[in-house]
Amino acid sequence: MVEASRATTPTALQHFYNSDLGETFVPPGGRISIDVLDRCRRDYLMPDASQEPAWMGVDVGLKLHVVVRQTLQEGMSRALFIGEVDSFEELDRLMQCY
Hints:
Strand content: 15-25%
Number of domains: 2
Strand order of the largest sheet: 1-2-3
Largest sheet: 3 strands, antiparallel
Radius of gyration: 19 Å
């Protein structure tokens, strides 16, 4: 681990942070700034349900962070739901909607 901590390339540093320390690694210039996020803010409309095929990603922790997306044409997709729920029962209700 000491040897790995002396890494100098971004790939080796990422491996050290992820595998040895169990932490995330962000290379220099790899963060999204608050300014960039602020410029993306809009009053986006997200439907309460969808009859079209959709896919869901869930990050499981104390809360369940959920993203539901619908595939559009030409490899594009749009968000149908972005949020968090407290239980798998709530997650099941989201799956029924989308």
